[in-house]
């Protein structure tokens, strides 16, 4: 049986399915018995979802204008 | 004749590049922060313009532009780091935001204090917290958890071993967890006079 801190250290990798089978089994066995770490696994999954669901920032219109102008100068500069 | 071909190529470059601008900016904003995002996109456009002949299939343009942007970001990280530094020892590799929230218990009347904590962050707040994470660890966090790339793909993008990306990710996540708490306390996200989490 692995310790809580060891289980916690592997939670993200566990959720990402980045652990190899024996390691995953050890975390599974720990979670089956430890309520606190189960709560932590649920929270980590929610934190992961928060990152996944956070959209990227929009391109502000003034920056877009600059960048389009910049593309024009690139075009002009190469002729 | 050659002029006509060059003209057509340039027109295509501009059209293709314009389509990439929104997401290129969005990615740059998260990887290098708001003050440097525009500069980084410009560097990417210069390099893309120079190498545009190398792009054979316009369908591959997003991946091609992304790789150029990431090269620019990597160069920037290297420049900013100055002299090679030793990898700092993570002072608290086992930091747990979950336990921190349970210990501090900002809303004792709530049955879902952990989720309330996450719900108190707007998208702007999440970007601000990401800005506080060390850039080297921030990049894999954004690419894997926000952009949906695998750690193997990120390793290829940065030319490092997959194990290195996994270790950056581990640090990035822990750093992100710590900064979420710090940010929440600094910005008073936890203080609500009405006692109702947002």
Structural class of chain A: mainly alpha
Radius of gyration of chain A: 23 Å
What distance separates the N and C termini of chain A? 69 Å
Number of strands of chain A: 0
The SSE order of chain A reads HHHHH
The backbone outline of chain B, from C-alpha atoms, is elongated
Main pleated sheet of chain B: none
The total of helices of chain A stands at 5
Unreliable stretches covering 5 or more consecutive residues of chain B: 193-198
End-to-end separation of chain B:
64 Å
Q: How much of the sequence of chain B is in beta strands?
A: under 5%
Tags for this model:
heterodimer; A: 79 residues; mainly alpha; B: 198 residues; Rna Polymerase Sigma Factor, Chain: A; Arc Repressor Mutant, subunit A; 2 domains; 9 helices; elongated
How does this model look, in words?
The complex is a heterodimer of chains A (79) and B (198). Chain A is an all-alpha fold. Chain A has one domain. Helix content of chain A is 76%, strand content 0%. Chain A has five helices and no strands. Chain B has two domains: 80 residues, Orthogonal Bundle (Rna Polymerase Sigma Factor, Chain: A); 90 residues, Arc Repressor Mutant, subunit A (Orthogonal Bundle), CATH 1.10.10.10. Chain B contains nine helices and no strands. In chain B, helix 6 crosses helix 9. Chain B is elongated and about 75 Å long. The C terminus of chain B is likely disordered.
């Amino acid at each position: 049986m692995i310790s809580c801190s060891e289980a916690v250290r592997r939670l993200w990798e566990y959720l990402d399915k980045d652990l190899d089978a024996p390691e995953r089994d050890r975390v599974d066995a720990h979670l089956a018995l430890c309520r606190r770490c189960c709560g932590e696994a649920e929270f980590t999954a929610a934190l992961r979802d928060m990152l996944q669901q956070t959209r990227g920032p929009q391109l502000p219109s003034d920056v877009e204008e600059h960048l389009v102008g910049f593309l024009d100068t690139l075009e002009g500069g190469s002729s | 004749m050659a002029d006509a071909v060059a003209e057509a190529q340039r027109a295509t470059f501009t059209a293709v590049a314009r389509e990439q601008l929104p997401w290129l900016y969005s990615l740059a904003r998260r990887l290098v922060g708001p003050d440097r995002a525009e500069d980084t996109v410009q560097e990417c456009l210069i390099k893309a313009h120079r190498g545009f002949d190398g792009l054979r299939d316009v369908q591959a343009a997003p991946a091609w532009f992304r790789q150029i942007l990431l090269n620019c970001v990597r160069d920037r990280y290297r420049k900013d780091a100055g002299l090679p530094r030793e990898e700092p020892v993570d002072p608290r590799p086992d930091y747990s935001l979950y336990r921190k929230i349970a210990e501090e218990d900002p809303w004792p009347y709530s049955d879902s204090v952990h989720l309330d904590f996450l719900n108190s962050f707007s998208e702007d707040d999440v970007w601000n917290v990401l800005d506080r994470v060390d850039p080297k660890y921030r990049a894999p966090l954004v690419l894997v958890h926000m952009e949906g790339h695998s750690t193997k793909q990120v390793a290829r993008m940065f030319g490092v071993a997959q194990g290195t990306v996994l270790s950056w990710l581990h640090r990035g996540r822990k750093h992100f967890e710590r900064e979420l708490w710090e940010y929440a306390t600094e910005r008073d996200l936890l203080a609500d006079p009405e006692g109702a989490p947002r």
